[in-house]
Amino acid sequence: MKFTLIASLAMTSFSAYAAEDVIRLGNLKFAHYGAVSYIKEIAPKCGIKVEERMFAKGLDIMPAIIAGEIDVAASAADAAIAGRAGGVPVYAVAGFAKGGIRIVVQPGSTIKNVADFKGKSVGVARGGAQELALLAELAKANLSWSEKPGKDVKIVYLPFADLNQALMQKQIDAMSQSEPQASQAINKGFGVELLKPYDSPMGEPIRTLVMSEKLYSSNRPLAEKFMKCFVQATKAFMDDPKLAENYVRSNMFKGQITVDDYQDAIANSPFYYNLSVEHMQITTDFMAKYGVGKMVKPPVAKEWVKLDLLDQAKKSLNVK
C-alpha cells in the first residue's frame, strides 16, 4: 500500500513536470519550415516535449496564440508583424529560413519582366511574404494594382494550394508563390520563373519564429530549452542536407514532392537562424506603405524583436 502511494505520488509529480515542459508549436506545411517541424523529433533529447499543430497560413496561428493554445509559431515576418499590430502578445525571437518566393508565369508567356504585368492578372496568397514581395515589385515598376478591374494589374487572391491549379488552367497570367509549390509548377512544366523578388530594400524575406510573451517572460528555463533545441534542429538540417531532404519529403509531405521539387525549393529558401531589428522594421514599413495587414498602428521593431534567447543558444552550442 505504501509502495503504491509512493508510486502514485511519483507519477503525479512526473506528470506535472512533463506538463510544464511541453511546448505547443504552430507551423506551416512548406519545405523551408522543415527544421522547425524537426524540433519535435529531437525534443526529448532537449528535455522537452513539442506538440506540433499545422495551420493553413501564418495569420491563422495568431488567434490560437491569443487563446493560449500555441506557445511558439513559425510564420512569414508579415504575419508576425500583422499579428503584433493586432494585439497578439508575441515576440519575434529568431529567423528560420530566408527567401522562399518565386514569381512564376505561364510557359510561352509574353511577360518578360514585371512591367509586362500591365493588363494582366497575378495570383497570390493574402497576407504573407509573397504578397508583400509582389507589391514591392509592382511599385518598383510604377504599376497600380487592385482586386477589381481599373488598375494596371488585377490581383487575384487565392490559397497557396489553389494558385498552381489556377496557373495551370490559365485562370491567371502569373503568380507570386511560396516554396515548394513554386518549384513544383516549374518542374511539372506549367510554370516558368520570371524572377525571385528580392531586389527591393527589404531584400530576401526572413521567415520568423515568434514566441508568446507569457513563455518568454514567465518560464525562462523552458524558453531557453526550446531555443537551444531550435538551433540544434536547424544546425542538423544545415549540416546534413540528406537528413533534411528525407525528413521534409517523407515526414512532412508524405512523398508528395519529388527530389527535384525539394532541392529547387531549398535552394531558394535555405534554412537559417538569424533575424535583425532592421529587417523587421523595413518589412513593417513596407507593409504600412502598401496596406498589407491593414495595420492601424504598425509595431516598432525594437520594442518586440527579442534576440537574446537566440544569441544565448547559439553561444552555448558554439554556432555562428
Describe this structure in words.
This protein has 320 residues and is of the alpha/beta class. 46% of the residues lie in helices and 18% in strands. It has 14 helices and eleven strands. The strands form two sheets. It has a six-stranded mixed beta sheet with strand order 7-8-6-9-5-10, sandwiched between helices. Helix 2 (34-42) crosses helix 10, helix 6 (160-168) packs parallel to helix 7 (181-187) and helix 7 crosses helix 11. The longest helix is centred in the C-terminal third of the chain and has 20 residues, at 220-239. The relative contact order is 0.18. Mean pLDDT is 92; it is low at 1-17.
Strand order of the largest sheet: 7-8-6-9-5-10
Task: Using the CA coordinates, give the radius of gyration.
Answer: 21 Å
Averaged pLDDT: 92
* Strands, total number: 11
- Through-space gap between termini: 55 Å
Which stretches are poorly predicted, pLDDT < 50 over at least 5 residues? 1-17
How much helical structure, as a percent, in the residues?
40-55%
Tally the helices. 14
